[in-house]
Inverse folding.
C-alpha cells in the first residue's frame, strides 16, 4: 500500500508550518520485488525538526536514504533550495547530511580522522564543533581509536556529532536515541530543541515516537 504523509494535526506540540519549504519531494515511487514501499509520495520539509514516524519495516530509514540521494527512487523529484537532485547531484548532496548508523565503511578510521574527512563533502562542516560535540557526548577517550574498537552506542555518538556539526541545510537522523546512555539522550534532545528554532535549517528525525519536549515543524506518518 502507498505510504502518505500524515494528515494535518491539531497537536499543540507542533508549531504552525513556516511558509518556507527547504526540501520538496514530489511523487516519489520506490518498489522492491513483491513490495511497493512508496507510491506518489509528496512531502515538504520546513526549517526546524520534522519527525518521520512509523512501525518497524514501514520505510523510515529507506525514506531518509531517498531524501539523502543515496538510494534512487524509481520516479519522482527531489529539490532542495532550488537544487534538483537529478540535475545537480553533487551540489544537492553537499546540503543534505546523512550517515548510516549501521555502516561499517569507517571501521579502520578514528572519529577524529572521520571528522577531518567531512569538509571535503560538506563545505560548511565545522571540525572544531564536531570535536566539542563529541566531548559533550562523552567520546573524548575514544577520539583516536579506530571505529571497530567502539561500542555501538559510541559509534552512534560519532555519527551524531558529525550530523550536528555538518552545517547542512537538511540533516537526516535515523533513530538518533538508539543505544545511547541517559546523559547522551539528554544532550541530543537539547541540540534538537535548539534546532527546532532554526530559521534556515532542518533536522529530519526518524523514530517510533516524538523526541521529548521538542517542538515539531512537521510530522510524516508512514504506515502499511
Amino acid at each position: 500500500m502507498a505510504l502518505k504523509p500524515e494528515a494535518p494535526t491539531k497537536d499543540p506540540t507542533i508549531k504552525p508550518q513556516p511558509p518556507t519549504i527547504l526540501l520538496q519531494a514530489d511523487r516519489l515511487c520506490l518498489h522492491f520485488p513483491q513490495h511497493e514501499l512508496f507510491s506518489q509520495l509528496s512531502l515538504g520539509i520546513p526549517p526546524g525538526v520534522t519527525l518521520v514516524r512509523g512501525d518497524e519495516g514501514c520505510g523510515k530509514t529507506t525514506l531518509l536514504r531517498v531524501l539523502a540521494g543515496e538510494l534512487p527512487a524509481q520516479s519522482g523529484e527531489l529539490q532542495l533550495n532550488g537544487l534538483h537532485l537529478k540535475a545537480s547531484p553533487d551540489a544537492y548532496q553537499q546540503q543534505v547530511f546523512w550517515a548510516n548508523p549501521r555502516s561499517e565503511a569507517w571501521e579502520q578510521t578514528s572519529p577524529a580522522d572521520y571528522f577531518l574527512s567531512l569538509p571535503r563533502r560538506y563545505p560548511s562542516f565545522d571540525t572544531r564543533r564536531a570535536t566539542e560535540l563529541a566531548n559533550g557526548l562523552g567520546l573524548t577517550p575514544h577520539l583516536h581509536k579506530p571505529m571497530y574498537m567502539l561500542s555501538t552506542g559510541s559509534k552512534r555518538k560519532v555519527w551524531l556529532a558529525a550530523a550536528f556539526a555538518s552545517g547542512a541545510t537538511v540533516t537526516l537522523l535515523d533513530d538518533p536515541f538508539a543505544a545511547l546512555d541517559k546523559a547522551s539522550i539528554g544532550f541530543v534532545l537539547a541540540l534538537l530543541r535548539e534546532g527546532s528554532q532554526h530559521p534556515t535549517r532542518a533536522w529530519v528525525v526518524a523514530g517510533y515516537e516524538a523526541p521529548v519536549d521538542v517542538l515539531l515543524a512537521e510530522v510524516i506518518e508512514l504506515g502499511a
The chain has one domain: 41-221. Residues 41-221 form a domain with the Rossmann fold fold (CATH 3.40.50.300).
